[in-house]
Amino acid sequence: MQPKFGSEDNTRRSFLKKTAVATVIISTADLISPGSNHSDAQRKKPDRIPWYKSVTRWGQVNITEKDPAQYDIGWWRKFWKRTETKGVIINAGGIVAYYPTRVPLHRTAEFLAGRDLFGDLSRAAHEDGLAVFARMDSNRAHEEFYKAHPGWFAADASGKPYKAGDLYITCVNSPYYNEHIPAILREIAELYHPEGFTDNSWSGLGRESICYCEFCKKSFHDKTGYSLPEVKNWNNEVYRQWVRWNYDRRLEIWDLNNRTTKSIGGVHCIWSGMNSGSISGQSRSFRDYKEICRRAEIIMLDDQARSDSSGFQHNGEIGKMIHGLLGWDKLVPESMAMYQAGRPTFRLASKPTPEARMWMLNGIAGSIQPWWHMVSAYHEDRRMYKTPGPVMKWHSDNEQFLINRKPVATVGVVWSQQNTDFYGRDDAEELVELPWRGMTQALIRSRIPYLPIHIDDVDRDAAQFSLLILPNLAAMSKNQVASIRRFVEQGGSLIATGETSLFNERGDISSDYALADLFGAHFKESASPPSSKLAGEAYHTYLRLTPELRGQPDGPKNDNEPTVTGIRHKVLSGFEETDILPFGGLLQPLNVEPNAEVLMTFIPQFPVYPPETAWMHTPKTDIPGLIINRTAKGSRILFLPADIDRQFAVSNLPDHGNLLRNLVRWAAKDNLPIAVEGAGLVDCHLYEQEYHMILHIVNLTSAATWRQPVDELIAIGPLRVKIRLLKNVRGNNLRLLVSNEKIFGEVKNGWCHFVLKSILDHEVVVLT
Ligand SMILES: [Zn+2]
Description:
Elements: H1 12-21, H2 28-31, H3 40-43, H4 51-54, E1 58-62, H5 73-82, E2 87-94, H6 117-127, E3 131-137, E4 140-141, H7 143-148, E5 163-164, E6 167-169, H8 175-192, E7 196-199, H9 214-224, H10 237-265, E8 271-276, H11 279-284, H12 289-295, E9 300-302, H13 313-326, E10 333-337, E11 339-340, E12 346-350, H14 353-365, E13 369-375, H15 388-398, E14 406-407, E15 411-415, H16 417-424, H17 428-445, E16 450-454, H18 458-461, E17 467-470, H19 478-489, E18 493-497, H20 516-519, E19 521-523, E20 542-545, E21 580-582, E22 590-592, E23 597-603, E24 624-630, E25 636-640, H21 644-651, H22 654-667, E26 674-677, E27 682-688, E28 693-699, E29 719-724, E30 733-736, E31 741-744, E32 746-748, E33 751-756, E34 762-767
Zinc ion (ZN) binds near residues 211, 215 and 216.
């Protein structure tokens, strides 16, 4: 059992007193006096930690303006209890107030009718020992506000306000953010003492529009010396400075709001705006994930449902990505929709339980904490009330193994938001996200645990990795290039794809790859544009494996016996029956150094239709698709100018997935901490705690794997698993947290071998 909020004394006073004194995690020695009779289990449980580190299950009724008339607080209190909810997010103010506010122009919800709904709910939650996150939405306001302060709203070059439906978008540089929102935060903090504040949509106007209000004009000029850019132009330095200036302003807002809430509510009364699960979404909203995580105590993740393209596994990945920036001792609760979110959206219809459940479970596998989310306090579709309970209960029972743990992986996949911004620009999906997704899907498909690693953290985290993968990480600064070099100099291996290191951090193309010497290949400037600029198209192109194992490409032989003309490299194993692979992208000639080896070459496009014309017009070129290089210290470098990663994300061809798997295994020198055998698509996450290893396997095998929603779970098994044991884990005793069984592991040469008979949705194995 984790420490419960107010469990000893269900009053808000005691709750506040407790949180006020809590500052840091107190060591066991501080908690337990010598000779006390606490059990070992109790000894390990510090009981005074800040709420944002101890509230591990959240719930949210997103209140509609109609709800004050129909919100049955008594019913929901029982629901909180039934679902083991430890904290609630309650709509407080912003667009509308759910309490009687005195802040001028802070309009109350249409059906509030004098009721103090936020106050009633906050008091109920505190009485029940729950933490309260007061939810704001500072992004927009009503017409009456606009008429009173038209200058506080975002406007285009002609002075016309930007609108979202009937509402007006507020300007982040105006007194709306500097005075009005802080006044609301102070009022709520003084009246209701919520533990903290969150904000649904706090970062103002997105990147697609430029605000030309007087506040923006002045601020931009003061800070950069320039006038606001007239148009979007990524090649223009002023536009790029505008992008950076926008990021900086959002960080200022983050800091200002925290100063405000802490000045009234104390040091733990934090403000934490919600953030997205999509890096390009963060980019479009000017939210600098790295800098936000550097200053946040908790990340409130608003990423409510899966997309068909990235799957449930995205939730495991984003959890690890954020923890990598935030730290593994902090929490990342995620808003998980119990209604039909995604495409199409039905706010008041229940999401099929298996779909909602799988999203929750895969998030938990990535060390995310569950936060059920419903829109409106009253539902005619009551089926959603049954969805969160079982997952929340299971989480509560097994929480000690689901938080405060560190991931175990030898493969790091490197990312940066600057690559999304300044290389991806308006095509980040094709240029940045697809290569990432194809690479990580191939890793998941191959049951290879990996960690997303921010490029600025490479030096910090390098020691744990054998291999770093750079999936089209094109825009890199000199320092970032240097950190990759240091990793390789220490013996680490590298896989780089596409245009990796061909651009500087601002997205200007260079004359050569900054990592060209490691790749053993140099960029040739040519008349035609670089291949990735044509990303997203599918071309009828192929890759020729070298050497060919059968026949001559320009003169097919009639006999069926292969004429072996050479021995292929191990990374091409499994393709002995073919000399070509389907590709789909385009390639340019490169200058390859003599020591580097070209393992695949490009076959240019030829017609698909009509079949009579579907023959290779140029069967052979020396344009490289895959180059292999080694360093003096034994690092293995694989450079894939062919965007196999992106092609895999687009086309899902097993050849591409298998090739990527081969490359990773070879480059990592087979230094992988687990192996899982048996049919099915599974997502494997491995962690360590002091005396445990924890393997979380999520079963993604379903008729709806690539098309939401899942309606039926399909069991897989048996799976044969082996895990390389860490020093402090013996590996004899295994607990299965889902099937609730104990099994034995066979330990041989430092590995623990065991069999999982069957997995329906997920299983967690704790090795002791
Ligand atoms: Zn403005």
